[in-house]
Write a structure and sequence with these properties.
By secondary structure, this protein is mainly α. It has 18 helices and no strands. α1 runs parallel beside α8, α10 runs parallel beside α13 and α11 packs antiparallel against α13. It starts with a helix and ends with a helix.
Length: about 400
């Protein structure tokens, strides 16, 4: 039980290096949606960063997971493993970056920004930098140097914010719906923060406890409490959009607020998927991760093709949710065959379903007074927290009890 407490502490420490920068970065939404006063202007950013999200995976080529896997084995030569992995990342990243720079003009034309090839140059530099620093940050996590990790991350985002204020003087042009989607997507950042903070702490934790006889039960318990915390975030953000929407600046973006609970739920399942991937990482069957990711990509493409013509950006949000649900289900199914872990499936689904129903139920109530609405939402969250605590109390007491 104290191992769960240890992981919770690590999550808080590493989370500072992820949460504080993202909270600072979160306030850029207000800047972006005021500079780009109509959603069409914001759409170009969303479109380009959609490609960046995919290409970042290609740039890293799974080396972060490989580094954790082999560097934590007994007798491993960690410096040598780090050097090999970093060399591979740098080689792949530089080669891809050169290719994008050389083809920047036709690429910018294909992406609808043909008169601005410097967008491609800038994004290529961003992806190259992210890839090159990823393994050094992973090394800090493995060595549990949380303060150094946090300081570097916070410094990075402060520089980012400063540069945004200095250079955001241009006016951009494409699609209204894409701009609304991109802005509202960022309101789901709080769930993403929880997922990333937990992932930073959990990956080295899982590998370091892989040989423990009781690790399957431990991993199941960790996943359960992760879901509990994420359900509280899902509730808290979704029923307080009447306040959070003001971060979007222009009211033209508010029409897309209905997609935020869907995206929060999608991120929740993505976090569960990250937890479940422990089985193929510990059994050296990482090729299953590639297969599952390809399957998820297929679901995303098909769902977007079918749903966007019907429901626009809401359909795209549902497609993201379907993708992560599919990946989670497949990872669980395959994992139980090769590395059985006694996950609390029924309890987890009960929490997720009840919380989702509560979100949409609470949002049916409309108040003329913001004060009354906020008070009502606060009461709902307090009652929810009390009920969850009473359900989980016995195990929580065991976890927090100090060692004899």
């Amino acid at each position: 039980m104290n191992k769960v407490k240890q992981l919770a502490g690590d999550t808080v420490l590493y989370g500072l290096g992820s949460i504080v920068p993202r909270v600072i970065n979160f306030f850029l939404i207000a800047l972006h949606t005021r500079v780009f006063t109509n959603p069409e202007a914001y759409g170009v950013i969303t479109n380009l960063y959609a490609y960046v999200g995919f290409l970042n995976i290609v740039y890293m080529f799974g080396m972060e997971t490989a580094y954790f896997r082999f560097a934590t084995k007994p007798g491993a030569d960690e410096p040598r493993i780090f050097n090999i992995a970093q060399t591979a990342v740098v080689t792949i990243s530089v080669a891809l970056s050169l290719a994008f720079i050389i083809t920047a003009v036709p690429l910018s034309a294909a992406l609808g920004v043909g008169d601005k090839p410097y967008y491609i140059y800038a994004l290529t530099l961003v992806m190259l930098t992210d890839a090159v620093v990823a393994l050094p940050f992973a090394r800090l996590r493995l060595r549990k140097k949380a303060l150094t990790f946090a300081a570097a991350k916070i410094t990075n985002v402060l520089l980012l914010v400063a540069l945004n204020y200095v250079f955001l003087t241009q006016v951009f042009d494409p699609a209204h719906a894409l701009g609304v989607f991109g802005a509202c997507y960022k309101l789901a950042v709080l769930m993403n923060l929880a997922v990333q903070a937990f992932r930073f702490a959990a990956e080295p934790f899982f590998f370091s406890h892989a040989s423990d006889r009781e690790s399957p039960a431990l991993f199941a318990r960790i996943n359960h409490y992760f879901i509990v915390v994420c359900c509280f975030i899902l509730l808290g953000v979704s029923i307080n959009l009447d306040i959070l929407k003001h971060f979007l600046g222009s009211a033209e973006y508010w029409e897309g607020l209905n997609i935020v609970p869907v995206l929060l739920l999608a991120y929740l399942f993505l976090g569960i998927y990250y937890n479940l991937t422990v089985w193929f990482k510990l059994t050296d069957r990482t090729y299953y991760g590639t297969l599952i990711a390809l399957g998820g990509a297929g679901v995303t493409i098909l769902a977007n093709y079918l749903l966007i013509p019907i429901a626009g950006y809401t359909g795209s949000s549902v497609a993201a949710l379907l993708c992560y649900v599919f990946m989670t289900a497949m990872c669980y199914y395959l994992g139980q065959k090769y590395y059985p872990i006694p996950y609390h499936v029924v309890r987890a689904l009960a929490y997720i379903i009840i919380t989702t129903v509560l979100v949409y139920g609470v949002n049916l109530f409309v108040f003329n007074s913001q004060l009354v609405a906020t008070l009502f939402h606060t009461i709902v969250m307090v009652i929810y927290a009390v009920v969850v605590y009473r359900i989980e109390r016995d195990e929580l007491i065991q976890i927090t009890r100090p060692l004899p």
